[in-house]
Specification:
The protein has one domain: Aldolase class I (TIM Barrel, Alpha-Beta Barrel), CATH 3.20.20.70. The chain contains eight helices and ten strands. The chain has an eight-stranded mixed sheet with strand order 1-2-3-4-5-6-7-8. A two-stranded antiparallel ribbon has the order 9-10. β9 and β10 form a beta hairpin.
């Protein structure tokens, strides 16, 4: 899925940039396919990301997106600083979105990101996936206790009081064995109270070792479309290292 992608949806005109990263420092989530695209070779990483960022800058100039999102199959802090510097003209003056694991996020890291990228607004996406701590840690392998969820909520309130141009969004995973639909609805309600935005993502299976996908009822689909800020149903763009994810295997 490495590359540059254009979207026009509920969030507006968006440019999504998928960079190559080093292996995620945590790397234990039971459902994540992005290890298939990561590399241990610095030269390969810099070459791929230089090409992708160059393409993204051309699209930004010609297309004028309202939002720019940069992802690397891990946390933005795990990219080399040279790559972060190369991203500055892409981020400057935009609503700039990045992904982080929660342990990388505190008031100092948020300030550093704002200082480095100078966005109009910074959006930090964190993959809590569910409000149910047992599912999050035992089924998904996230190792994110409820204390982290509560800490990020308090950090969001703190940054609001300080007037910092930052928002905190979370992912909500659905359509996977071990995540009941009633839990998805409960999580959506809780996340809407705790975060500035919720992106619901339909699970795709890329490896036999990953959990199995399950069907999604019309009722849940309607609730997600009405109340989540964005629903990612996947599609042709969900190709990880040449493998097409499936919701029905």
């Amino acid at each position: 899925m490495l590359g540059v992608f254009r979207y026009e949806d509920k969030l507006g005109r968006r440019l999504v940039v998928i960079l190559q990263g080093y292996p995620c420092a945590y790397g234990k989530c039971t459902f994540c396919p992005f290890a298939l695209e990561q590399t241990l070779h610095p030269a390969k990483l810099f070459e791929a990301n230089s090409r992708i960022i160059g393409e993204a800058l051309k699209v930004k100039e010609s297309w004028g997106p309202e939002r720019v999102a940069v992802f690397n199959g891990g946390s933005i802090h795990e990219l080399p600083y040279k790559v972060l510097e190369d991203l500055r003209p892409l981020a400057s003056g935009t609503v700039f979105e990045v992904e982080e694991r929660s342990e990388y996020v505190d008031i100092d890291s948020v300030r550093r990101l704002l200082q480095l990228f100078e966005p109009r607004r910074l959006v930090v996406r964190i993959g809590f996936e569910t409000v149910d701590e047992r599912i999050r840690n035992e089924v998904l392998g996230k190792d994110m206790p409820d204390t982290e969820l509560e800490r990020i909520y308090r950090l969001r309130l703190e940054t609001r009081r300080m007037g910092l141009p930052v928002e905190f969004w979370t992912y909500l995973l659905f359509g996977m064995e071990g995540i009941p639909e009633e839990s998805v609805v409960r999580s959506l309600k809780a996340f809407k109270r705790m975060f500035d935005g919720v992106i619901a993502i339909r699970y795709r299976r890329y490896s036999p070792s990953h959990p199995r996908p399950v069907g999604v009822s019309r009722g849940l689909a309607r609730i997600l479309e009405e109340h989540a800020d964005l629903v990612d149903w996947g599609g042709d763009q969900w190709v990880i290292a040449g493998r097409q994810g499936s919701a029905q295997k």
